[in-house]
Design goal:
Layout (H helix, E strand, L loop, with lengths): L11 H9 L4 E5 L3 H9 L4 E4 L3 H4 L11 H14 L4 E5 L9 H15 L3 E5 L5 H9 L4 E6 L5 H4 L9 H17 L3 E5 L3 H10 L4 E4 L7 E4 L1 H4 L17 H18 L10
Helix pairs in contact: 2-4, 4-5, 5-6, 8-9
This protein binds 3-methyl-2-oxobutanoic acid (KIV).
3-methyl-2-oxobutanoic acid binds next to β6.
């Protein structure tokens, strides 16, 4: 059962209209069928099959190790679960940076095999030819600027990006370049709120923020973080909407106790 009245499938066109009408866009990650069903049923506008699956699902330190096959596996599961939300899949590190031809080949593979609705790529002018080629193939692209986790080894830190004028100026021109190329949206990660607000006002396409303040057209979070499953990740921008870590620990602990005491299963729980 949906918690929103409008059950029509969300499209890139609808997201554009939402920006024009001043309606905020809600986006959340999901990587598996069961979670995506709940996220979709709650009325999410966009489900991101983020390469944060590398951290959240596989326990890697960064997003770099996740492969194309693994992203397709996650995206397929999410698409199967989703009726309303637009499903965006991250192109993983190494699948679009080499050259535009390789980028579009990998982009087509994700679309063909996962049936997702759109792709997200990290970077600005340095990947613009690849972005254009993917768009030319008819694939909607969402940009991602600011803290781009696939470049963590270059940054050397997960701290706020674009505080300095030169980096802020580059971010603004990158955002315009992505819009001019034809991207349907841009994600801005961990940048000053005033800069994100400026970009949001200057662009016609929706700007989705994560740690980029309330001036964006929408917000995105990692599902495990906002549900409080992860205990050791507490950036300033994160709001926890549940404490699933404690709830799951208690439930699983109770199950262990019941199994060990012989209380589970009882006679109504057997054939
Ligand atoms: O992979 C991801 O989860 C993301 C969001 C943080 C925007 O790219």
């Amino acid at each position: 059962m949906y918690l929103v009245e409008d059950k029509r499938k969300v499209t890139t066109h609808r997201l554009f209209q939402m920006k024009q009408e001043g309606k905020k866009i809600a986006m959340l990650t999901a990587y598996d069928y069961t979670t995506a069903q709940i996220v979709d049923a709650a009325g999410m506008d966009i489900i991101l099959v983020g390469d944060s699956a590398s951290n959240v699902m596989a326990g890697n330190m960064t997003t770099l190790p996740i492969t194309l096959d693994q992203m397709i596996y996650h995206a397929k599961a999410v698409v199967r679960a989703t009726q309303r939300a637009l499903v965006v899949c991250d192109m993983p590190f190494g699948t679009y940076q080499v050259n535009p031809t390789e980028g579009v080949t990998n982009a087509i593979r994700i679309m063909k095999e996962s049936h997702c609705d759109a792709l997200k790529l990290e970077g600005g002018v340095e990947i613009i030819d690849t972005v254009k080629k993917i768009l030319d193939a008819g694939i909607p692209v969402c940009g991602h600027l600011g803290l781009t986790p696939q470049s963590i080894n270059k940054f050397g830190t997960y701290t706020v990006r674009a505080r300095e004028k030169a980096e802020a100026d580059k971010l603004v021109s990158d955002a315009h370049a992505l819009e001019e190329a034809g991207c349907f949206a841009v994600v801005l990660e961990k940048i000053p709120a005033l800069l994100a607000e400026q970009v949001t006002k200057e662009l016609k396409i929706p700007v989705i923020g994560i740690g980029a303040g309330g001036g964006c057209d929408g917000q995105v979070l990692v599902v495990a973080d906002m549900l409080g499953m992860s205990k050791d990740f507490s950036p300033k921008f994160l709001r926890r909407y549940a404490d699933l870590n404690s709830i799951m620990l208690e439930a699983i602990g109770n199950y262990i106790t019941d199994v060990k005491s012989g209380d589970f299963p009882n006679e109504n729980e057997q054939y």
